[in-house]
Amino acid sequence: MSRKPMGNSWSSPIKCLDCQSEFPKTGFPHRCPECGGVYDFAEPLRYAPGASGSERRIWRYRETFPLPPGAKSVTLGEGNTPLVSYQVRGRSVYFKCEHLNPTGSFKDRGTAILASALEAQAIERAVEDSSGNAGASFAAYAARAGIHARIFIPSYASGPKRLQMEAYGAEIERIPGPRSAASEAVLEALSAGDTYASHAYLPHGIAGMATTAFEIFEDLGDSPGSVILPVGQGTLLLGLARGFQALRAAKKIQSVPQLIAVQAKVCAPLWMEMIRGESDLVSLEEGETLAEGIRIKSPLRMRALLGAIRASQGDVVAVDENEIMGGWNALAKLGLYVEHTSAVVWPALLQNLDRIREPVVIILTGSGFKSI
């Protein structure tokens, strides 16, 4: 028996960036059916935590999420990850341990919101493309929501991540070639009628990522001076930017932190844009890298990412493969076992420690148990 979607009297806070059409009350398109534009939030996100104990973890911030009233929370206990303090060269540094989320990555914050929105619309089948973490996260939350998941991954994707998706019951399509080939393949498969539950196209997960900023603020009692994080498609960076903006609008903090985006030098479109200009992007290659989770040649929300970085007085840093491996070893020696994508933050920290504002928060995005 098919599930029925919730009532359609609710007004969605999501609109097309081009024609301003509201996200439809029935169906779940990844792009605007009117003009083909990309969806985003029509208004800034709000910081409005619920009363202590009323709801747990990220669901304390339910009013931030683009969900209809009465929508079920599809949750596996995501959020409320530790913020661990260290001294690095005499500077205060905190590691936000997002690798300790239920499926082993930060993606769970966004996937919980997206899966809840899909469940509210009674979606029963959905496809996604991923280099690993997003797919593993979606497979888990789809299983929780009773949604059949079909996930397109590049054939080079880490074995543990693929096995994780399969264990949750997802149908896996391994696509030869670079990461972009998986994105192209999933679009070709949409003719079968499945919903494209894209963490890149759909903005729902950005609201979930904003809770990372809320938790950092609540743990520190103020805004950090800077935040360093790996960036591929950049939903985490956008979530952080909008989360700190929401805190500022709520008069909880006086200023937002510098956002320092880190990419692998062999595939660094944001870095190339910042230092060389957009004209060089046409020659950018999608090189092989240990940091497979950020191997994204053309981020969908490039303009928004660059705008958020510049508005925060932040920067983009590119690191080479030897630095990534060195960062992985250095973090492990601190007791922090993360995947190589997360390890890009360590060389970026050392390169910029003397010029960025304190305290510094570093986001560790994925568990070391996910990579070989």
Structure described in brief:
With 372 residues, the chain is α/β, with parallel strands linked by helices. It contains eleven helices and twelve strands.
Features of this protein?
372 residues; Rossmann fold; six-stranded mixed β-sheet; alpha/beta
Beta percentage is 15-25%
- In terms of per-residue confidence, which ranges show pLDDT below 50 for 5 or more consecutive residues? 279-283
Approximate helicity band = 25-40%
Q: Give the CATH architecture of the domain at 83-105 and 203-370.
A: 3-Layer(aba) Sandwich
Could you please describe the fold and organization of this structure?
There is one protein chain. With 372 residues, this protein is an alpha/beta fold. The chain has a domain at 83-105 and 203-370: Rossmann fold (3-Layer(aba) Sandwich). It has eleven helices and twelve strands. The protein has helices at residues 107-120, 133-145, 159-167, 179-188, 204-220, 235-249, 269-275, 302-311, 321-333, 340-343, 345-352, and strands at 14-16, 39-41, 83-88, 91-97, 125-129, 148-154, 171-175, 195-196, 226-230, 258-264, 315-319, 360-364. It has a six-stranded mixed β-sheet with strand order 3-4-12-9-10-11, sandwiched between helices. A four-stranded parallel β-sheet has the order 7-6-5-8, sandwiched between helices. Strand 9, helix 6 and strand 10 form a beta-alpha-beta unit. Helix 1 runs parallel beside helix 2, helix 1 packs across helix 5 (204-220) and helix 5 (204-220) packs across helix 6 (235-249). The chain is globular. The N and C termini lie far apart (42 Å). Mean pLDDT is 92; it is low at 279-283.
